[in-house]
Amino acid sequence: MSEEQIQALKEPGGARRDVFNEQERAAIQFAETLTGWPGSAQESDLDTLGKYFNKDQITELVLIIATANLTNRFNEGMRTPVDV
After folding, report:
1. Is pLDDT of 14 > 90?
2. pTM for the full model?
3. Domains in the chain, CATH or no CATH each
4. N or C: fewer beta carbons within 10 Å in the chain?
């Protein structure tokens, strides 16, 4: 990832999402949905991902998002110090 893309991900609401291609934007949007409101993920979200990823890739994407959420919540709950 470029520094510009990393900075864009830090901006609320994705104001600078133009630095990503359509495939990347679809993955980012799905990750945000699954992270913030997991129950709101719709079949249409999977259909959108299906334009860019096959079933195995979508499964892997969901597992990566879920793992990141698990570790983030664990570390937040345990007040794990962040290495800078």
Report:
1. no
2. 0.81
3. 3-78 (1.20.1290.10)
4. C
